[in-house]
Amino acid sequence: MKKITLLSIFLLASASSIYAQNTTKAPVKRNSPTKTIAQKDANKSADDDFNRWTIELNSGQSKGIKPYETNYYSSQIHDVGGKFNFNNFAVGARYMITPKFGFKGNLSFDDLKNGSGNGSKDFHTIQKGIALQAVVNGSRLLGIDDVAGRWGLLLHGGLQGTMITSFTPNTIGDSHNYGRTEHNFGMVIGLGPQFRITNRLALSLDISIYNYFRQHFNWDGSYSDNSNNLNGQLMTTSFGLSYSLGSQKMHGDWAVIKDKNIKEIEALNQRIDEMETLMNDSDKDGVPDYLDQENNSVAGVAVDTKGKMIDINRNGVPDELERYLADTYTSKESTNTANADMIKRMINDGYVSTYFDPMKSTPTNVSTEGIDFILTYLRTNPTATIDIIGHADEIGSSEFNQKLALNRAEAVKAILVKAKIDPTRLNVISKGEDASVDKDSDGARKLVRRVTFKVK
């Protein structure tokens, strides 16, 4: 039934949405009802549940593809000393607007030299760059993120501004200019496979190609005074680490993104669960728990609209229970053991009480029926003994209330003794202050100015 109700609500909501898109938008009411928490949660974008910021650090090799002067060639994997040529370094930050699309900015440094054994003349050129690029999470775009597991793929492209400086020494007859600098501008595209190492840390391989529009430097450091651009190209291959920042434990590129419709269904499901909880009736008295002020009422006893057992004479015993007990248990002919156990339990649970006015130790007129009930029980059960337990509210000192509670118990005992109950069957106890109710409430204090009984 719950699933059918949920599906019906969802279909109605979908139909309403389609209808609204094909009709004129109605004016917004200034005093519209406040949305419930569940509705607000449902209206939140599904894109809010992932870390958007990521910092990235990369290092690898950059190679100038073109242009070069005669007898100069691209740098190789190894430098002149035979070591791997780590000549590219980059650091950046990325912000994902949605789980699939974002932007990143980065600073880069490229140190270009001739390679080992490639026959090129010596050269040394440095490039410093700053780039702004759009980023696409390829795994999410292709819909393979669930299958890929810890693997991922990023695609990126954008614009880069650079500053190129030649440190190649001038030689007679060539166009190299030591220390000369030029500002450049171009485009970059690239892709980067990823592997998530921990929840927040990932290892990446990035391959990028740069194309510059107004370059006048050859990568060997020679400079062209010709007004025509040289259309330079550069390629970088680098390894890196990315670390996800945010409140979520999982890296933003691998976060589980819930569909907005699913979130709306979950919100509706939560509201239905809340409604079902509110409609629970723990004591089966026909009054839901959220309205029930006495959710432990005895089964079968009449209650009012607030779930409280009806006690018109206010003697502490519900009327129906009082009549039933009087009819069933106060006659000497009753020998049913189960019934005897039940009446004993009712007395011990406090359903039979005698009440008092503030600071008084004489029972109120309307509550003497509780004493009469105990008297009848003791006469019907001549071997039974009871504790007479006095209570007081919190008004006054603790010492005073301890004595007042004792006096109330003694007063009830005196009445029973005068009714010819053997005093050895009656044990007086003072419980002193009863702090179970709000001491600032007159009505609540009435409930604890009493004497209760316990059958032993």
Summarize the structure.
This protein has 456 residues and is α+β, with helices and mostly antiparallel strands.
Textual characterization of the structure:
The protein is an alpha+beta fold and 456 residues long. The chain is built from ten helices and twelve strands. Strands 1-2-3-4-5-6-7-8 form an eight-stranded antiparallel β-barrel. It has a four-stranded mixed β-sheet with strand order 9-12-10-11. A hairpin with a 4-residue loop joins strand 2 and strand 3. Helix 1 packs across helix 5.
What is the 3D shape?
rod-shaped
Q: Which residues sit in consecutive blocks of at least 5 with pLDDT less than 50?
A: 1-47, 330-335
Q: How much helical structure, as a percent, in the residues? A: 25-40%
Q: Secondary-structure element order, as H and E? A: HHEEEEHHEEEEHHHEHEHEHE
- Quaternary class: single chain
Widest beta sheet: strand line-up: 1-2-3-4-5-6-7-8
Report Rg: 44 Å
